[in-house]
Design a protein that fits this description.
The chain is an alpha/beta fold. Strand 29, helix 9 and strand 30 form a beta-alpha-beta unit. It contains eleven helices and 30 strands. It has five domains: about 160 residues, 3-Layer(aba) Sandwich (Molybdenum Cofactor Biosythetic Enzyme, Chain A); about 60 residues, Molybdopterin biosynthesis moea protein, domain 2; about 80 residues, Molybdopterin biosynthesis moea protein, domain 3 (Molybdopterin biosynthesis moeA protein, domain 3, Beta Complex); about 80 residues, MoeA, C-terminal, domain IV (Beta-clip, Beta Barrel), CATH 2.40.340; about 70 residues, no CATH class. It starts with 11 loop residues before the first helix and ends in an 18-residue tail after the last helix. Strands 16-13-17-21-20-18 form a six-stranded mixed sheet, sandwiched between helices. Helix 1 runs parallel beside helix 6.
């Protein structure tokens, strides 16, 4: 079959706008779910209270329920005694209904009771409704609790139940069918045995399914489909005609001789986009078949994730009546130069931590197949298509992938790599989980220079001085003559035969 070369590649913004515009009325259906199970769901209609809360006047404190006018005039030099036995004052606990004709509560700490607790003396008055939760103080029956397209939180569930709503009408979860393709792909065996020579363990579908579920949708992963046009066409058409709201073909989106995704989509429907000016993620395909959105995702793991995040997640949010949540950007100082190709928007995985009064960010190795960068990164740098890169020491904007509090306490380690860093990382997570270790490997001298430039907290080093036979000390004196540093002998290492 003839290769399909990228034609008319579009920017990320253009491609996303075109894709979403074709599904502007793609809201999922509605269903009723128990309020106790509604966390994370999206309301499909306005939700109004059926009951008031409280539904009666109730005590806000433990004490005496009274008619406030009976306490007027009470003072240190004019104590007032209230008769409990006759019902002039009534003992009451927090949350209990206020007795008829009572309109205030005196805190029990402010009452001097006689030994039989039949009379109580006070030395200060209370005003009407003091220490009382009035009926409807929190929620009034018929008032709007939540508008349409509101994401229900755990506290919202309490409000629903308190307001007498046992169920709530929500948007149905979008259904995503993920079809992994590739003759070289195999499933991981239960025992974790190595795959046959020339094959690759299929893992992208697990990542995409996880992202789908985080977006409030349901994921279905099909068995692996070999690189055969007829097989791919048959399975894609079957997915389109199922209950799926979005179909994702993973791999086969590039321009290889066995990459059939674009031809299949073109034959069954319409290709809206083939090729986006982002890296990783350039081979992304966006299309439509029988009115349903279809994505051709790149096969490399980092590319697959970025493509899914940029195009599938906004669509899944729209299907639920929401907009994709955006994360506030963070200013950081760049530790190293990052060159970039002009004309391509580049996504770089970074590790970021606070040093003194500012954040420092360090690039991880690049590559569409470098899956470890996904697990180690705590932030992302987007290099615009109009730029040829970013320079060391420049202030840049990064997108945090972890809460700000985690980045604040991240320990940056730059320099030589050693297996002991993995042991140290695990030890820190067990002993002080709030302080993760994030390391990048640039060699011993690179680590020392990072210390010199205030770009790291720690530096791994094992530099041998051939003149003295010693390690590290002479280099610290040479490159850091005026810096107060601590040299720790962490481990001894034996190398060679």
């Amino acid at each position: 079959m003839k290769r399909k070369i990228y034609l008319n590649m579009q920017s990320r913004e253009e491609a996303r706008s075109l894709f979403l515009s074709r599904f502007h009325d793609s809201l999922t259906g509605e269903e009723d779910v128990p309020s106790r199970e509604a966390a994370g769901r999206i309301t499909a209609e306005p939700v109004r209270a059926r009951l008031s809360s409280p539904s009666f006047h109730s005590a806000a404190m433990d004490g005496l329920a009274v008619d406030a006018k009976d306490t007027f005039g009470a003072a240190d030099d004019n104590p007032v005694t209230l008769d409990i036995s006759s019902g002039q004052a009534v003992m009451i606990n927090t949350g209990r209904p206020l007795p008829p004709e009572k309109n205030a509560v005196i805190m029990i700490e402010n009452v001097l009771l006689d030994k039989n607790e039949t009379r109580g003396t006070i030395r200060a008055p209370v005003y009407p409704w003091q220490h009382v939760r009035k009926m409807g103080e929190d929620i009034v029956a018929t008032e709007l609790l939540f508008p349409s397209h509101h994401k229900i939180t755990p506290p919202d569930m309490a409000a629903l139940l308190t307001a007498g709503c046992p169920t709530v009408r929500v948007r149905k979860k979008p259904r995503v069918t993920i079809i992994p393709t590739g003759s070289e792909l195999v499933d991981l065996q239960p025992a974790g045995d190595p795959p046959p020579a020339g094959t690759i363990i299929e893992s992208n579908s697990a990542v995409l399914a996880g992202l789908t579920e985080q977006a409030g949708a349901l994921a279905t992963v099909t068995p692996i489909i070999v690189d055969d046009f007829a097989h791919i066409k048959k399975n894609l058409l079957q997915a389109v005609r199922s209950e799926a709201d979005l179909i994702v073909l993973n791999a086969g989106s590039s321009a290889g001789s066995a990459d059939y995704t674009v031809q299949v989509i073109e034959e069954l429907g319409e290709v809206l986009v083939h090729g986006v000016t982002i890296m990783p993620g350039k081979p992304t395909i966006l299309g439509i078949i029988e009115g349903k959105p279809v994505m051709g995702n790149p096969g490399y793991p980092v590319s697959a994730i970025i493509s899914f995040e940029q195009f599938a997640l906004p669509l899944l949010a729209r299907m639920q009546g929401m907009e994709q949540e955006t994360v506030p950007l963070l200013s950081a100082v760049l530790a190293r130069d990052i060159p970039s190709r002009g004309g391509i928007e580049e996504f770089r995985r970074m590790i970021t931590g606070r040093i003194n009064d500012h954040f420092v960010t360090v690039p991880l190795k690049k590559g569409a197949g470098a899956i470890t960068t996904l697990t180690r990164a705590n932030s992302i740098l987007r290099i615009q298509a109009s730029s040829e890169g970013e320079t060391k020491n420049s202030k840049i904007k990064i997108e945090p992938l972890r809460p700000l509090a985690v980045l604040e306490k991240t320990i940056l380690c730059t320099g030589s790599h050693d297996l002991c860093l993995d042991v140290l990382h695990d030890f820190l997570k067990k002993s002080t989980p709030a302080y993760p270790l994030a390391s990048t490997h640039v060699g011993s001298l690179g680590g020392i220079m990072a210390i010199k430039n205030n770009m790291t907290h720690l530096a791994g080093s094992h530099l041998l001085d051939p003149e003295t036979g010693g390690y590290n000390t002479s280099y610290l004196k040479r490159y850091l003559p005026e810096r107060a540093v601590t040299l720790i002998t962490l481990v001894y290492r034996r190398q060679g035969l």
